[in-house]
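Hi Q.,

Before the meeting this afternoon, I wanted you to have the S-adenosyl-L-homocysteine prediction in hand. No need to reply - just skim if you have a minute. The sequence and ligand are here:
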Amino acid sequence: MTGWCAQILTLYPDMFPGPLGQSLAGKALEAGIWHLDVLDIRGFARDKHRTVDDTPAGGGPGMVMKPDVVAAAIDAGREKQDLPLLVMSPRGRPLSQERVAALAEGPGVAVLCGRFEGIDQRVIDARGGEEVSVGDVVLSGGEIAGMALIDAAVRLLPGVMGAGQSAEEESFTNGILEYPQYTRPQSWEGHEIPPVLLSGHHGEIEKWRRRQAEQDTKVRRPDLWARYTAKTND
Ligand code: SAH
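Predicted structure with the ligand bound:
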């Protein structure tokens, strides 16, 4: 196996590659720039019913993924390749472009996908898992969150984005959102493309984009804006 490794620990192995087999990530997968290694957590259950979950200690609804089974899956993955372990969880630290870019520079990532009410905390702590969240929403499982993380990392791998697709000017890379985009037709349902974009004046276009990016960030993401202004005033 070559390239950046995305190792997935999941109860739903058939969900992969799924969307990661399409478009940019899919082409890169085919080209061998990265590869997938999917481990079925259920395969590490030891009893004849292949039990992977049990009721929550302390009571309450739902089920919790068992530490012994999850640990066996993590350890088997590590035997193959030692990768940073990212645990998908709404309780985790919000994923950032900065973190994704750092992961893209490494050997790859092991992604542990939760189901039910989540995973026994002891196994996350004992195996040094880094809990990350893809937003303040609750998904039904970690697979889609893991796909989001992998997609974001894969597009940054060398050779994945063409010359026409730059990661340098994107949202978050400079601490603010990207400027809004427009394309032909020039007039659509009576709405015009901002004239400066058609002026051919690169200096003016750049200034306009910068202003739009700052304005939009201020209004849409006051949290980003506060950090950005604190940094630029340093
Ligand atoms: N009871 C948990 C939610 C469990 S959702 C709680 O309230 O915190 C089941 C699984 O989906 C989680 O274990 C996690 O792997 C995944 N998941 C749900 N929302 C997520 C999010 N915002 N980011 C990353 N993973 C998430």
